[in-house]
Specification:
The protein is mostly helical. The chain contains four helices and no strands. It starts with a helix and ends with a helix.
Length: about 80
C-alpha cells in the first residue's frame, strides 16, 4: 500500500511540474507573438529608400548630433 502511495505521489508531482511548464511556455508564446518591435516607422523606411529624402534625413540627424535637439517641423516635412 505504501509503495502505491509513493508511486501515485510521484506521478502527481510529475504531472504538476509538467502542467506548470506548459503554462509557462504558453504564457511566453502569447507574450512573444503579441509583442511587435518596430525600430523604424513605415514612413521612415520609405524615406530612407529614396535617395533624396535619405540625404535630407541624414542632414537632420547630423544636425541633431550637433545641437542635441530635433527640428520636428523639418522631420515632418521630410517624412
Amino acid at each position: 500500500m505504501e509503495n502505491n502511495k509513493n508511486t501515485l505521489d510521484s506521478i502527481l508531482s510529475f504531472l504538476g511540474i509538467l502542467s506548470l511548464l506548459v503554462i509557462v511556455h504558453n504564457v511566453y508564446k502569447k507574450l512573444d507573438t503579441n509583442t511587435e518591435t518596430n525600430v523604424i516607422s513605415d514612413n521612415a523606411l520609405k524615406a530612407i529608400k529614396n535617395p533624396e529624402t535619405a540625404d535630407k534625413l541624414r542632414k537632420e540627424v547630423d544636425n541633431y548630433h550637433i545641437t542635441g535637439k530635433w527640428n520636428e517641423s523639418k522631420l515632418e516635412s521630410i517624412l
